[in-house]
Design a protein that fits this description.
The protein is built from five helices and 51 strands. The N terminus and C terminus are likely disordered. It is mostly beta strands. The chain is flat.
Length: 753
């Protein structure tokens, strides 16, 4: 059956009446919303509404309101629609007033569309009604305002379609929190539009017409805004940038960052200065520059590192197309370039050995340097320590003719010396003393490996009588990416490195701190997006109630790690792993976890909004994460399943465990011979009795539906060894998606004896 929501009433000094269906001849302007809000208390509201909004004295409380800049004309038809989860309710009204309001406690005769809450009756004394915090669970609702051509009259069994309503003139998500009033103003000119984003930061491309710099890669990392809201952008380069001409023919050590325009941007306003800028700085408007970040348009800023006072401040605002109906201009964002790492003076050599990374497109036996590594840096402050990222390489036939040595993590370093002695490095295939002489080009391509304790082996080097150790423990080793999976490492402005693995389409992204790479090295990571887990085979003895819920039209992620023999590896630890799953529909989902041994646990409820249809969960282990969209039909089965399998130990996001509704009635359970008998003694309601055949709740079970009349005569009997859970129901009849699931028995009337 359809679950019904709190009723809706337009609470105004005016009385709502049925609107005529005759068309009006005159043209009317589209009303502009200038404010909205939500208040908890009833009565007169003189100080806590949007300025200009008014109220009558009969507001009941828990009231949402909409305020127009000018009262809509009398001939304008209004339709106010609110979505809470999967429920929709709305009211029709004529123009003529500036303030319109809806009480979540009022279920009179003036609403046109409303869901209903089972077991709830209405009276104006605020008795036996479900409050906003109970129904919405302090969540987010969506408010829309329409001006349909024809008036909507009479009770509506479903939300009017687009042909009836037309395009919404206003849409807003509103977060309802207990005892916190909402008061928001709206610029009428931007009502119903989306503000453009801030753009994406990347390193600017150097002058491709200059051979000395065209292969140098600039990396830009944006940090957190400072107290003035200025975002620092740290720039690094893959090699020393020589003096060269920019696009205007001026000499300098040019370096910079690019901003890829957000979706919907048509132009950009900017300011560029050596001195500090603010969001109120005067900006000049210009067209977008093509291909500033790959094939993306936007704007790029270049500073001359050799200037005494280089331009390092940039203020940017993105502008939508003129007369566009979708977007409004972005906020002004101010950036400050940090050039301190560009051409930083090298530490004077304290030994006859200098170590530097090999960069760019340098050919390394059939692979390029940037195929092997990224962001490699060498620190000689205390010994020789190397940091950066080593990518996982396959098919490296130029490095070795032995198949098992043709894949792994490699690093390429340039070793030079002012000594007349050869540079030697310790190698498994070296001479009698274990050392091998480096080729004359000085490039060492090293396959990184670990010792028996799991520590990365260093490179041992000799120059004459001098011995050196090149420490590789600070290098992040990316795992092998299975087909259809991407793996990369990113480092922020503070030097924190994270590893991101995703499927090719970006439907699932797994983000984890670099330190967890220790558990991934040498294994293969595979990330899949599964539209349905229908064909997933769970381990034997997994609760069939969970099996059927998960197999019902779920979306989710399957994140696996396998060793060199293809066996699945369980990766766990204290580090927080973030898994982001894209879903097709907005709504609330229940996320389960299927572990490597087939055990199913509950991760709880997560919500995907219309604006960003993603679910983000935090875990301590990689696994499979089916996300089942909660509907009225499967809600009872999901709640029972979640209760049976229990909360996941690896869940780290702090959300409270999701449990089925607790019963407020009493029941007794006695054992008679080979039977268990449960008797409901409380109020009249619908109850679910969940039977599992052993104490761990892990074997296939049954769900009974019992309708109690409050007399104490509602009973159900089953095998005496069974474990029973009694859950107070939320709907009159349990309805399971695609019919009754396998191994679940639906009992409409409790069997006796």
């Amino acid at each position: 059956m359809k679950q019904k929501l709190l009723s809706v009433l337009l609470v105004l000094a005016m009385a709502l009446t049925m609107l005529p269906t005759a068309a009006f001849a005159e043209e009317t302007a589209t009303p502009a919303v200038s404010g909205y809000g939500f208040v908890w208390e009833g009565g007169e509201h003189t100080n806590d509404l949007v300025e200009g909004a008014t109220t009558s004295g009969d507001w009941m409380g828990e009231t949402m309101y909409v305020y127009f800049a000018d009262a809509p004309a009398q001939n304008v038809n209004l339709w106010f629609q609110v979505n809470v989860g999967n429920d929709t309710w709305g009211c029709a009204a004529p123009g003529g007033s500036k303030t319109y309001a809806f009480s979540f406690l009022n279920r009179g005769s003036q609403w046109e569309l409303h869901p209903t809450i089972s077991g709830e009756s209405f009276d104006y004394n605020n008795q036996n009604v479900t409050h906003a915090t109970s129904y919405m669970k302090a969540g987010t609702v969506t408010l829309k305002v329409f001006t349909p051509t024809n008036a909507i009259t009479g009770e509506q069994n479903s939300a009017p379609d687009e042909n009836t309503l037309g395009k919404a003139i206003f849409k807003q998500e509103i977060t309802i929190k207990a005892n916190e009033d909402v008061k928001q103003t709206v610029d009428p000119e931007t009502s119903g539009k989306t503000k453009l984003g801030a753009g994406t930061v990347s390193g600017a491309i150097l002058n491709q017409a200059i051979a000395e710099v065209k292969d140098i890669t600039v990396t830009a990392n944006a940090g957190k805004p400072d107290n003035d809201g200025v975002i620092p952008v740290a720039l690094t380069a893959s090699a020393t940038i020589p003096t060269h001409k920019n696009g205007e023919g001026k000499d300098g050590v040019w370096v910079g960052f690019a901003l890829a325009a957000p979706e919907g941007a048509a132009k950009v306003k900017y300011a560029f200065s050596p001195s500090a800028l603010t969001a109120s700085s005067e900006l000049a408007e210009t067209e977008l520059e093509a291909n500033v970040a790959g094939n993306k348009s936007g704007i790029a800023f270049y500073a001359n590192k050799s200037d005494e006072s280089p331009k390092i401040y940039a203020a940017v605002q993105w502008i939508p197309a003129e007369n566009g109906e979708t977007y409004t201009a972005s906020d002004v964002t101010v950036y400050k370039m940090d050039l301190s790492e560009i051409n930083k003076p090298e530490t004077p050599a304290t030994s006859p050995l200098t170590v530097a990374p090999v960069t760019g497109e340098t050919d390394l036996l059939g692979k390029k340097a940037n195929d092997l590594q990224s962001n490699i840096k060498v620190d000689t402050t205390d010994g020789i320590k190397v940091t950066g990222t080593s990518k996982y390489v396959t098919g490296y036939t130029g490095w070795s003719s032995v198949a098992e040595d043709q894949e792994g993590n490699y690093i390429a370093l340039k070793l030079t010396t002012d000594s007349k002695e050869d540079i030697q490095f310790k190698s498994v295939d070296g001479t009698d003393n274990g050392y091998k002489t480096l080729d004359s080009d000085g490039i060492l391509i090293w396959r990184i490996s670990k010792d028996k304790d799991g520590k990365v082996k260093p490179i041992e080097v000799k120059v004459g009588k001098d011995n050196f150790t090149i420490d590789l423990s600070g290098v992040t080793l990316l795992p092998k990416a299975a087909e259809g999976t991407k793996v990369e490492a990113t480092t922020d402005a503070e030097g924190n490195t994270t590893i991101k693995a995703s499927d090719n389409d970006g439907n699932v992204t797994v983000t984890l701190p670099a330190k967890t790479a220790e558990g991934l090295t040498g294994n293969t990571v595979k990330v899949e997006n599964k539209i349905s887990f229908k064909d997933n085979d769970m381990a034997e003895n997994t609760d069939k109630a969970v099996t059927e819920v998960v197999k019902t039209a779920s979306a989710g992620a399957a994140v696996t790690v396998t060793d060199s023999e293809g066996n699945e590896v369980k990766v766990s630890g204290d580090a927080v792993i973030t898994i982001t799953i894209k879903v097709e529909d907005a709504g609330t989902y229940h996320v389960f976890c299927i572990d490597n041994d087939g055990k199913v646990t509950s991760f709880g409820e997560y919500t995907a909004t219309e604006g960003e249809k993603t679910l983000t969960i935090k875990s301590k282990h990689l696994s499979q994460y089916p996300a089942v969209k909660i509907t009225e039909e499967n809600k009872a089965a999901i709640e029972a399943a979640a209760k049976l399998v229990g909360q996941d130990d690896g869940k780290v996001d702090g959300d409270a465990p999701v449990t089925p509704p607790a019963t407020t009635s009493t029941y007794t359970r006695i054992t008679e011979a080979a039977l268990n008998k449960v008797t409901i003694n409380g109020k009249a309601n619908t109850y679910y009795i969940v039977q599992a055949t052993n104490a761990k709740n892990s074997a296939p079970g049954l769900i009974y539906c019992v309708k109690a009349d409050g007399s104490g005569n509602a009973e159900v009997r089953c095998n005496a060894s069974s474990v029973l859970l009694v859950l107070e129901g939320t709907t009159a009849d349990p309805v399971f998606t695609n019919g009754v699931p396998n191994n679940l028995t639906e009992v409409k009337e409790a069997p006796k004896g």
